[in-house]
Design goal:
This protein is α/β, with parallel strands linked by helices. The protein is built from 20 helices and 8 strands. The chain has helices spanning about 10-35, 40-55, 65-75, 80-85, 155-160, 195-210, 225-235, 260-270, 275-280, 285-295, 295-310, 320-325, 335-350, 360-365, 400-405, 425-430, 430-435, 435-445, 460-465, 470-475; strands spanning about 95-100, 105-110, 130-135, 165, 215-220, 245-250, 390-395, 415-420. It has an 8-stranded mixed beta sheet with strand order 1-2-4-3-5-6-7-8, sandwiched between helices. Strand 3, helix 5 and strand 4 form a beta-alpha-beta unit. Helix 1 crosses helix 8 (about 260-270). The longest helix has 26 residues, at about 10-35. The protein is globular and about 60 Å long. This is Triacylglycerol lipase. It comes from Russula ochroleuca. It is a single-pass membrane protein. One of its GO terms (molecular function) is hydrolase activity. Keywords: Hydrolase, Lipid degradation, Lipid metabolism, Membrane, Transmembrane, Transmembrane helix.
Length: about 500
Amino acid sequence: MADLPFLSRLRSHEYVALLLGFLFIVFEGALHIVILSLPKLVINWFYLKSRSLFLHFVGASSSSPEARRLADRIRKADNFEDLCAIFGYHNVEEHVVLTKDGYLLGIHRIPGPRNEPRPVPGSSTGKPVVYLHHGLLMNSEVWVCLTSPERSVPFVLAELGYDVWLGNNRGNKYSKKSIHHDPNSLKFWDFSIDDFAWHDIPDSIEYILQITRASSLSYVGFSQGTTQAFAALSIHPQLNQKVNVFIALAPAMRPKGLSAPLVDGLMKASPTLLFLIFGRRAILSSALMWQSILYPPIFVRLIDASLIFLFSWHSRSVTFTQKLAAYSHLYSFASTKSVVHWFQIMRSGRFVMYDDEPYTPALRSSKHSPRAGYRPAKFPTRNIATNIVILYGDVDSLVDIGAMRHELPEHRLDIRRLGGYEHLDILWGRNVHVDVIPQVVSALRQHCVNPEMIKSDTDAFRSKGGLHPDAAIDYGLGDGWENGAISDYATSTE
């Protein structure tokens, strides 16, 4: 009899959910085709109608006109360089890393403060090097799409004297190229967290160290960016000598599951169902379509509703203006296989490598099965020798600190709790310049190479609370923020 992974392991209501999911995907695909065939005039008409309905039933935002103007400019920025230019950073560099298995990864560099003369591209600055990596379904833009520069980790670090690099995963907006496979092929998208750990992270770090001629760098990861580092450091012992400190923001290693019981149970029962629903290429690629046709506040509410449903994240610390600016940069391409890998981890309750076997857990534990006792390989995270600083929100549903304490070497751990913080709050929250960034800076100063090169005025981050560009001067972030590219786009919170 043919092996059906989900047969007899789903309840009746889960089959109903699966059917509804298929119907939604079919409807969405048909809608996508219709939208592509419509003239721009018709699409604009629907956009304006959705805008008028939203304003009629919900009302206008209470944020200031200046804040809305800045949010709109950030929302419309096409790429990483355009986002940085809004805040006066015209010294941004773009580099391409060739991984050992043939993927081309776009990575970005902010070599210094906004007013510092631009160095020769690709040259060493002699400064301490920091590498930042994004989370699942994201790219490097998530670090620089904030509505105030003092809340942006890379901008703050660049002003303090760090050589800042930002990485990208294979398949996303800046890394959709391979010397072996076309991005329209199934083989191009045949990658999981394993491939990020075996290639993307270590190959990017090696490239950066070659360019900067530094002996080691500091790693700051967010969400899956921490997962990839945990995995990479565990399977590459030599990599631990090249990373002087690993700062994990909202770390994810083996989450317990989703907050939506129906979706959680369905995906854990058979993670490969995602292949049936989304195919074997990029997952949720239609998000860009919805983003282009919906009035931005409606798109924000749609994302908010999805995050509440799936993760119970209300993101109350992220202002609506910040969401308007950032949500358009939230999604980037990722493989369905990498998401399937996450549900395998949740189902097994272990931080395991991708499982290619089609056998069910019941068959694996059966004494009649020749595969009895089979379990996918686990990432040996206790082998990590790098110093680890964890910053986590105590109401983040994806963080299991108890599991991390069990899986990581205790003598290398420095765990810091952020009261009331959820997942995205650590990246875009209104008070990250007070609660998060000072701790990142202090950890970097403690472990980075040549800390004497870093500006010492960091305590101001704790004592100053303004979110206006003028406040950047008080923070020791250099002169002229108020006279630069954002003079007409003063920021504020709601």
